Amino acid sequence: MRAVVIEEYGVVPVVRDVPKPVAADGAVVLRVEATGLCRSDWHGWMGHDADIVLPHVPGHELAGTIAAVGAGVTGWQVGDRVTTPFICACGTCEQCLEGNQQVCPNQLQPGFNYWGSFAEYVAVPYASVNLVRLPDDMDFATAAGLGCRFATSFRAVHQVGKVRAGERVAVFGCGGVGLSAVMIASALGASVVAIDTNPDALKLAREYGAVHTVEASDQVAAEIQDLGGAHVTIDALGSSDIVQQALTSLRPRGRHVQIGLLPSGVQLDVGRLIGQELSWLGSHGMPAHAYPEMLALVASGNLHPAELITRTITLAETPAALAALSAGTPPGITVITPGVA
């Protein structure tokens, strides 16, 4: 099969032939119909993830058709249209049995722990726990966008941040995760403030429901406090500077939700956390069993994840697009279609 292969960190990958995966016991192999280009893939390409072993195929947001079913997998067959969380949980540990597959200590992540979906085929381990059947009327590109950024934002906004109607939510960073958070928080009835350096990203944020848009600067926190402060802040990019601005933007007893990765770490103003009784909340993906609520809101027309897709590219165009993330995250979601020349 054809795949995007990272042979050296920080060096533009190549597209070449590699062995097709096999369906191990408990696993399935998918023909990849669509896969998202995410900033997490860039972090992996730059060498920020210790689990990656070179050479490596990235890609973790995916949707496809089951091409092979391994021994022990029940309820699924060749030809089924599916997606999967980027966290493939084991299904048997204490956390999984409590329903917290997103923090499974035995998790495997495509594109990080093993070869991912920037390829014509990809394996999904622990398939019985991690596959999500797609609605008949949902296209693969939309489904691929759900797998990481939209599903991650849905859980972060709704289940972790517990955003309520009438609250003010400040979303820092309007890439795929941030714009998803804007759309979801707006659908929940929140008043959303979107912050980014890119005017095009802010334009999209307004289209997806942001009431206020603010160009990123060192005055952001003051501007948000002038609006009355935020009940909830979300770092959808991953930046120590953003974290400080987000915490300063909160009202007393506000909640900060951290989605963006912080490979260089962060120093917090713990005095402010204590004195203002602020909450710092981490959010990491969403388990397969939680997808039905999100899919129901999409089916009802309350959420429109397809609108977040701003670009579709081929496998051949992917290496350059991955490298271009070094200059910043483009607005919206980029989807790769491996089967299209």
TrEMBL record:
SUPFAM superfamilies reported for this sequence: GroES-like, NAD(P)-binding Rossmann-fold domains
Cofactor(s) recorded in Swiss-Prot or TrEMBL: Zn(2+)
Database matches in InterPro entries: ADH-like_C (IPR013149), ADH-like_N (IPR013154), ADH_Zn_CS (IPR002328), ER (IPR020843), GroES-like_sf (IPR011032), NAD(P)-bd_dom_sf (IPR036291), Zn_alcohol_dh (IPR050129)
Alphabetical keyword list: Metal-binding, Oxidoreductase, Zinc
Superkingdom of this protein's organism: Bacteria
Pfam families: ADH_N (PF08240), ADH_zinc_N (PF00107)
Enoyl reductase (ER) domain mapped to chain residues: 10-336
One Gene Ontology molecular-function label: zinc ion binding
Family named by the database record: Belongs to the zinc-containing alcohol dehydrogenase family.
Protein name: Alcohol dehydrogenase
Organism ancestry: Bacteria, Bacillati, Actinomycetota, Actinomycetes, Propionibacteriales
